[in-house]
Amino acid sequence: MGTVKHDGLNWHAYAHVDKYDPDVVRELTEYLGYEPTHADFQRLSVDPSRVVEADGNLLVNGGLQRITNRIIGTTADAFSNSLAIVGVGSTATSASAGDTVLGANNTAANGSVGSWYQGVDVGYPTAVGGVITAVSTFASADANFAWAEWCWGVATTTVVPDKAFATASTSGVMLNHKIAALGTKASGASWVFTTTVTLS
Q: Where are the domains of the chain?
């Protein structure tokens, strides 16, 4: 008798951080007249000062429910440009399926312990060939703490950047949660955070 094969769905997440030092951000801000975003760094061919990557992510219960709701047609807000949330925090406590916020949720926007949720850049998220990509530029004044965790979320109205998930999302849903040491962001630096989820 042959081996029985079962169908399955694989959720694979990946994070990539392009880090731009304060002197680079300051020079580009003076040149452009505004603080640069991911699109500006690309357009001007500015290489990041450093790059950090982290593999893997946990799909939490809220994210699983959101996916299944969308499949059967239950009304639910989509992970769209105005509603997509990317969050980072400083707490390295293990992620669990029951998580609804980052471990550092609602601590401080900047500091030794902190959390920050914001929207995605113009043109994101994208979905091509089973890969969902979100890009979010964390500006010089935001999320200046040790990045030890990250998440995606879906808001119910346009995302309002904030240290608390409930305020940023207006009672939205966190989709996933990853513990990963991504480095410490300093005031004046700009970090472009690219995150992907591949479904296969």
A: 57-199
